[in-house]
Each structure stands twice: as structure tokens, then as C-alpha cells.
Specification:
It is built from 4 helices and 2 strands; from the N terminus they run E-H-E-H-H-H. It has 108 residues and is mainly alpha-helical. The protein is flat, with a radius of gyration of 17 Å.
Amino acid sequence: MQLTGRPLSLSEIAQVALGETRVEVAPSAHARIHAARKVIEDIVAHGDVVYGVSTGFGRLSEMHIPAGELRQLQLNLVRSHACGIGRPLSIAEVRAMILLRANVLALG
């Protein structure tokens, strides 16, 4: 299956989650992904204030983060979302979530 950013059916998600289908990013999506990254890079390069890109989150949304600390901000964001409580998700659940996230990124 090629990810293009189009809506995925439940059947397609299940096939990937269960390891029945391989996934790759469609060549048509590469330009959109690069264009979206350029938007973020331009925001940082110009010092623009954009929530979650160059500011803190939630109550800290009014706090502008200096350019030299943005990499650490993003690393902290990933780390804060990489923990949880309760039973670990199954491999199929994780595969489905990663598929959905990758498909959103393919939208650009």
C-alpha cells in the first residue's frame, strides 16, 4: 500500500496492523512532506511566533522559545508523549497508530 494522505478504510488499517500489507510513502506525497517541512523551517528562520513550534504548550503558550532551544522543545514533546500508564498496547494497535500518523504526514 502506498500512503498518499487519502482516507484509509478500516480494512486497509486492519491489514497493515495485522502485518498483512507492507506500506510505503507514495512518491506523490514526498513533495508535500518536504513543502510542509519548509513551512516549519521558514517559521524558525524568521523567528515567527507559532504555537507549539516556537512557543511552549498549554499554559506556557505565551512563552517564546529561543531558536537555540527549539530542538530541545521538540525532543521534550516527544518524550512527554512517549510514556503512559496501564497495559502496553498490542503490536497491531501500535502499527495502526503509526500508519495513521504516517498517513497524516503524507498529506503534507
